[in-house]
Amino acid sequence: MTVKQAIANRIVQLCKERTIAPNELGNMAGINPSTIYSILGPKSKSPEVATIKKLCDALDMTLGEFFTTPEFDELEQEIK
Fold this sequence. Notes:
Largest sheet: none
Order of helices and strands: HHHHHH
Helix content: 55-70%
Structural class: mainly alpha
Protein name: Helix-turn-helix transcriptional regulator
Domain HTH cro/C1-type: 11-66
Number of domains: 1
Organism: Neglectibacter timonensis
Pfam family, one: HTH_26
Strand content: under 5%
CATH topology: 434 Repressor (Amino-terminal Domain)
InterPro entries: Cro/C1-type_HTH, Lambda_DNA-bd_dom_sf
Shape: globular
């Protein structure tokens, strides 16, 4: 799994937990919903930390809470 996939999975998980659609999350965060779908899509690059911070603010959570999951802990080391 890549960092980008882990981020996309986390966004989907949080939307399901809070019963909101990804485009609704985008609106709450002041981000164009197409940006959210781009993050979730297979062709996009990893989102900027500032974008994830906006999502966290909209979800009333910290960046630490966003990234504190086994999925992120188990990512392969990028630099070897």
